[in-house]
UniProtKB/TrEMBL annotation:
The keyword Aminoacyl-tRNA synthetase does not apply. Its main location: membrane. GO terms for molecular function: L-amino acid transmembrane transporter activity. Keywords: Membrane, Transmembrane, Transmembrane helix. It is found in: Membrane. This is Amino acid permease. The chain crosses the membrane at residues 21-43, 55-78, 99-124, 144-166, 186-204, 224-246, 267-293, 313-341, 362-382, 394-414, 426-450, 456-473. It comes from the Bacteria. It is a multi-pass membrane protein. One of its GO terms (cellular component) is membrane.
């Protein structure tokens, strides 16, 4: 990467090369669509194993939803101050220094965005296999000796390449897919939830909620293991890894600020509306799970596919087809939003001389074409690696650390740059931002203590960016 770095002036003014063609609905659909992938259909099984009760299952989703909404409302202030492409990368650079911004951008490219795209792509393929078994992850099409490649991985790459090509043709194409697929999956999810609650099984509901707040570990075989007080807090933090991953990517809309109409108003509003819609869906979906499935079944369902089991309980055998179609729609739309937004971060980094030089240009369709294809290659490699799932568990810690740093940046910028226009100010400042920071610190501290395997690999990825940054600076200076 470093060989292609050249010195560029800092992107401190609003980029006017992009076409502002995305309205409030489009921005809201990017928020909601990027958040809802495959997580809500799967991670509740692991959460249930960690907390062992219906009440704490819902509490984990409520805590995560509150944190997400609080962070989104805080980001509204930053998006109004810096309404240009790059989003969180720009906020961190402006609040702290270029190194902190680069470490976020590096982590974003190395794993956060690209591995997420890969994981969502493979999830699309896995559920396609319910309808077309040839695309199963068990169908090995190539054995390289050191690595096997499945049909699911190849289909994932095809989807990633297709969506990259569509988005390289202009933001309007990506907008159409995003809005259409997100509205479809929102309506489908609301429909599934409604049917599940209407057809709720009274005996199942009563059994699940009769001892709703007894926090314990629930094993797949039905046995339980109680927690001591400190370990109970660690269990809640471990459970939240899945819910935070499922609720992530809400900030993707900030990356495309240069293409949103009236960004000072619409970005903040879309962050609030999108995260609120998704939080309501996630909480009510889990309430529905507890209304149709015994808690033990939620914890032990095959391959953690809770939504498949719930759909079968609601619709019978056709339920597998129903949920497969829903997840295909959900993951396809989710990946479109991730691909569309992610490339804008690399574009802004290249404008600052901290990414491939050519990625800092727009193609004839006024989108960062090369940045899109570089992202496509990285995500495709993650699809082939088969390691993205473990990495995604590990980056929940890193993601929350960067969210906390960004929210602390609000306090820093109010002190260091009080004269910058703020068309929107963080809701509940300073109480709400401080509350998020405290909750984030508690989450990260508990993971460090009780689940270090979720923390140190992510930190290594972040810290690996430090020598790359200084190598980039030395290359830049040598070109002067």
């Amino acid at each position: 990467m470093a060989e292609l770095l050249v010195e560029k002036p800092e992107a401190t003014i609003e980029d006017t090369s992009f076409k502002r063609s995305l309205g409030l609905l489009d921005a809201t659909m990017i928020v909601a669509g990027s958040m809802i992938g495959s997580g809500i259909f799967i991670v509740s099984a692991d959460i249930t194993r960690n907390v062992g009760s219906a009440g704490w299952l819902i509490a984990v989703w409520l805590i995560t939803g509150f944190m997400t909404l609080t962070a989104a409302l805080s980001y509204g202030e930053l998006s109004g101050m810096f309404p240009k492409a790059g989003g969180q990368y720009v906020y961190l650079k402006e609040a702290y220094n270029p190194l902190i911004g680069f470490l976020y951008g590096w982590s974003f490219f190395a794993v956060i965005q690209t591995a997420t795209i890969a994981a969502v792509g493979v999830a699309f393929a896995k559920f396609t296999a319910y309808l077309v078994p040839a695309f199963s992850e068990d169908n090995i099409v190539l054995n390289l000796g050191f690595r096997t490649i499945s049909a699911a991985q190849l289909l994932s790459i095809v989807v990633i390449v297709l969506l990259t090509w569509i988005n390289s043709r202009g933001v309007k194409n990506g907008k159409l897919i995003q809005t259409t697929f997100t509205l479809t999956k929102l309506l489908s999810l609301f429909g599934l939830i409604a049917f599940g609650l209407i057809l709720a099984k009274g005996d199942v509901w009563k059994a699940n909620w009769s001892d709703a707040w007894n926090l314990h570990h629930l094993n797949a075989d039905g046995s339980v293991a109680p927690y001591v007080t400190a370990a109970a807090m660690g269990a809640i933090a471990s459970a939240m890894v899945g819910s935070i991953f499922s609720s992530d990517a809400w900030n993707n809309v900030t990356f495309i600020a240069g293409e949103i109409k009236n960004p000072g108003r619409n970005i903040g509003l879309s962050l609030f509306l999108g995260t609120l819609i998704v939080t309501v869906i996630y909480v009510t979906a889990n309430v529905m799970y507890t209304a149709v499935l015994p808690l033990q079944e939620i914890a032990s369902v095959e391959k953690d596919r809770v939504a498949v089991a719930a759909s079968n309980a609601i619709f019978g055998n056709i339920g597998t087809v129903v949920i497969a179609l829903m997840i295909m729609i959900s993951t396809f739309g989710c990946n479109n939003g991730l691909i569309l937004a992610g490339a804008r971060v690399y574009y802004t980094m290249a404008q600052d001389g901290l990414f491939f030089r050519q990625a800092g240009t727009l193609n004839r369709n006024a989108v960062p074409g090369l940045a899109l294809w570089v992202q496509c290659i990285a995500a495709s490699l993650w699809s082939l690696s088969g390691s993205y799932g473990q990495l995604l568990d590990m980056i929940s810690f890193v993601v929350v650390v960067f969210y906390m740093l960004t929210i602390v940046g609000i306090f820093i910028l109010r002190r260091t740059r009080p004269d910058l226009p703020r068309p929107y100010k963080a809701f509940g400042y300073p109480v709400m931002p401080i509350l998020y920071i405290l909750m984030g610190l508690a989450f990260c501290t508990l993971l460090i203590i009780y689940k270090p395997e979720f923390t140190w690999p992510g930190l290594i990825i972040v810290l690996a960016g430090i020598p790359i940054y200084y190598l980039a600076l030395s290359r830049r200076r040598s070109r002067r």
